[in-house]
Write a structure and sequence with these properties.
Number of domains: 2
Strand order of the largest sheet: 1-2
Strand content: under 5%
Structural class: mainly alpha
Helix content: 55-70%
């Protein structure tokens, strides 16, 4: 276990209050057993194509481009799959530059303001080529997994990986790098999204930046002996109200949770 600091009692209290709060606000049609499905994930990828596919989902979240790109849209998926050669990084690089890939997207999708240098599709094309170049450095999915696991020595070495990915893959950024690793099944990489940053900062558990929030989630996970992935999901569900596995949205409860927990912290004097 990592060394603990003077925030340890508060970390434990906030976590327990978050669990209690989530039980209270969860959709009535869900059981606690169904809710637990959100708290764990396994590494299920078996190929570099699957790794790239997951990365392309993550990369479309840059600048909130999900609705514009629609990579997971059922109608668009067959087109993406064909254009991107079943997500084979090597074949993509053999056939496209980022400019040629953008031109291909323009031919197959309705793209507005295509001439703009900041067009989201243009930036997405650049990200895809960058991602393919990075993944092409690995011989297989197992080779990629060995690479990731080399960073697990301690919290400092683990945090170096999303920093490296931020440099290597255009448009990824630290939070999205964590999100990609997390959704691949690496449970030690919480995503410091707006919900976690808001909650942890307002409760004085971190500074108002991505890295501090990331470290605070890992610290809390160590305190309560849970995975950072589980801690991440608990606060994400409270903050977003998006129970995505069941396609249920209950609205955000972040402000209410922060207020209630602040009052509890004051009364508990932790």
């Amino acid at each position: 276990m990592e060394k603990l600091n003077d925030k340890t009692p508060k970390m434990a209290l906030v976590y327990q209050e978050a669990i209690k709060f989530l039980w209270e606000v969860m959709p009535e049609e869900l059981s606690q057993e169904e809710l637990i499905r959100y708290f764990d994930i396994a590494k299920t990828f078996k190929s570099k194509e699957e790794i790239l596919f997951r990365l392309l989902i993550t990369l479309q979240n840059r600048q909130m481009a999900t609705k514009v790109i629609g990579f997971e849209n059922k109608d668009k998926q067959p087109i993406f799959k064909k254009i991107l050669f079943n997500y084979n990084a090597n074949t993509i690089l053999e056939n496209y530059t980022d400019t040629k890939l953008f031109e291909c997207f323009c031919e197959n999708f309705s793209i507005k303001n295509a001439e703009s240098r900041n067009n989201l599709w243009r930036l997405y094309s650049k990200s895809i080529i960058s991602a393919c170049k990075f993944l092409n450095e690995f011989d297989s999915a197992d080779d990629f997994d060995r690479f990731v696991m080399q960073f697990t020595y301690n919290a400092f070495s683990a945090s170096a990986l999303p920093m490296l990915l931020e440099r290597e893959v255009f448009g990824l950024g630290f939070p999205l790098a964590c999100d990609w690793l997390k959704e691949l099944g690496y449970t030690g990489y919480p995503k410091p999204d707006v919900h976690i940053k808001d909650i942890f900062y307002e409760l004085d558990l971190c500074d108002n930046n991505d890295y501090s929030a990331y470290k605070a989630v890992i610290e809390m996970a160590n305190v309560v002996e849970a995975t950072p992935y589980k801690v991440d999901k608990i606060f994400y569900l409270i903050g977003s109200g998006n129970f995505y596995i069941h396609n249920i949205k209950i609205g955000r409860n972040k402000a209410e949770f922060i207020k209630r927990t602040k009052d509890l912290i004051i009364s508990s004097e932790v």
